[in-house]
């Protein structure tokens, strides 16, 4: 922290002894922290660093769009309408890529029945952790006292992804689910990875 020897603060409230004259108070010492150590910025669960200069905004926007798209796809039959609503503006040139990504997800998950009526589906549902933090998995598939977590990733693999899904699974177990499993779906690689 920084320390200052002297500061002057002017009071705008009139004092008893003065009619319109503000009083002057001297402070010999005060503590201050640089604002740079207090600034953090987050948009939903995608944290953005103010100093990052190498962020590829088109990939970030594509990732956000994919997450928003899958938030609207509860069952496989919902895909066409969801895609039509999202393929506008800057993503119109990516229609084929988006169609392929959605179909690949369905193929990977078809034998698991995750996009059917077999499960109660929650997308982007908030989970309150014991420490007060709120986390939001991409997709929860619930059947009785069992839950499956699915998190979509549009970028490269990271150990943080596994930790993130493990955190979701633990929180759901603590919430009373007898069985909780977690999966990562890497769209770029077209791979489904069981985490927990």
Describe the overall structure.
28% of the residues lie in helices and 27% in strands. With 196 residues, it is of the alpha+beta class. The strands form 5 sheets. Strands 7-10-11-12-13 form a 5-stranded mixed beta sheet, sandwiched between helices. Strands 1-4 form a two-stranded antiparallel sheet. A two-stranded antiparallel sheet has the order 2-3. The longest helix has 16 residues, at 57-72. It is globular and about 75 Å long. Residues 1-13 and 38-55 have low confidence and may be disordered.
List the keywords:
single chain; 5-stranded mixed sheet; alpha+beta; globular; 196 residues
What's the SSE pattern?
EEEEEEHHHEEEEEHEE
Mean pLDDT over the residues: 79
Helix fraction, binned, reads 25-40%
Rg over CA atoms, rounded to whole Å, is 25 Å
Quantity of strands, as a count: 13
Q: Globular, elongated, flat, extended or rod-shaped: what is the shape?
A: globular
Strand order of the largest sheet: 7-10-11-12-13
Helical segment count: 4
Terminal CA distance reads 43 Å
Task: Provide a brief overview of the structure.
The chain has 196 residues and is α+β, with helices and mostly antiparallel strands. It contains four helices and 13 strands.
